Amino acid sequence: EAAVTQSPRSKVAVTGGKVTLSCHQTNNHDYMYWYRQDTGHGLRLIHYSYVADSTEKGDIPDGYKASRPSQENFSLILELASLSQTAVYFCASSDWGPQDTQYFGPGTRLLVL
Amino acid sequence: GEKVEQHESTLSVREGDSAVINCTYTDTASSYFPWYKQEAGKSLHFVIDIRSNVDRKQSQRLIVLLDKKAKRFSLHITATQPEDSAIYFCAASPNSGGSNAKLTFGKGTKLSVKS
Fold first, then answer.
1. For the CA atoms of chain A, what is the radius of gyration?
2. Given this model, what pLDDT does residue B96 score?
3. Torsion angles phi and psi, residue A27, rounded to 5
4. Which residues pair with B83 in a beta bridge?
5. Mean pLDDT, chain A, whole residue set
6. Is the preceding omega at residue A8 within 30 degrees of 0, hence cis?
7. How far is B59 from chain A (nearest CA, A)?
């Protein structure tokens, strides 16, 4: 069974503060993704990566940075958190691309006050 | 870029009936169409997919139909059970990988199966 873990599982942040969400996978997958889920918007892709030390912009990258220091780890960084970034964030991994099954982590619930 | 519209935001059926969730997409280059399920308070997991080289795929009680001309695909759940209650997301991908690797999701359909 594929395993994707996320930390923290929930976080309260202050507006203007820095937030780092971490994701770790033990699947030996090349691709990793960060999505946010908002009511009424479904899942939207923020950043993704298909190789260590490289990241790509997704559909809504503004206000977010990503870091892939190794195949197993993928972080999402909010340098200046804003109220509009309150959401649930999911990390996922897949073996050979977006047309392969994606395995999702448990999600991180972020509340920005 | 690709846009995926999921037509039913909510759907309620009686246990044992069939449920149908419909999605449309915009990019004619899309060739991969998966479905994911999210149970209440949980993460998403894959349930079934279809690729553009076929127009029908079945896995137990799940059937996916693809109409490439209409750019439409649908998920049929037969003989529904209470444990089918969840949010279902359709998605589409026109790319195979590399720097253009994106899977675009619909907004989700909340299915309630009433016993």
1. 13
2. 63
3. -90, -10
4. none
5. 95
6. yes
7. 15
